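DNA polymerase-3 subunit epsilon
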Amino acid sequence: MVLKTIRSATDKWTQKDGEFSFLFEPYEGDEVVALDCEMTDLDPQKAELVSIAAVKIKGTQVLTSDKLDIKLQKPDSLTGDSIKIHRIRGVDLRGGEILTDALDQLLHFVGNRPIMGYYINYDITVLNRFIRPRFGFSLPNKTLELSNCYLDKVRRANPELQPDLHFEKIAEKLGVPMVGERHSALGDAITTALMYVRLLKGPVPTC
């Protein structure tokens, strides 16, 4: 944690006159960005990006018209095993974005807003592996983990419960429909956003 804080402060200093200095400014608005990425591997040190999607949440409204949905050029590590999960084939990535251009779009879309997602630290770790060597910093944004938000709300009302924290089960308990196919970056980002809003304004889940 200390090293992360020091690195973030160093990044802010080195970027103070740069194109992305706005990322390091304190955020004072009421928007959150729901983010989801599809990768080629479960190991964040090996995974390559296949697609990136994000949608903005303003207060308790999911702004589905204000979204980011990027498919990338086919990475070398795209294999049959990873295709079984996200169902994105090499042919589906023809004409995909160059990674640096995709990351540039993501940084401008997210800005200095908080980023939330399901297992969001995994996504952020992978993104930073590619952002830092290209832009000279790691994402400084505050992050919110959906499963922790769900667990906290359940436990506040029912401290003894051990809720199922699988993505589909959380959606079911919150009464949120799955948007698109599971492991579609945009579908998962929007579904995550809807679950987050439901946690903000809905009744306490029973388990």
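thats it. The domain at 2-145 is CATH 3.30.420.10 (Nucleotidyltransferase; domain 5). Helices lie at 2-14, 80-86, 99-110, 120-135, 146-157, 167-174, 185-201. bye
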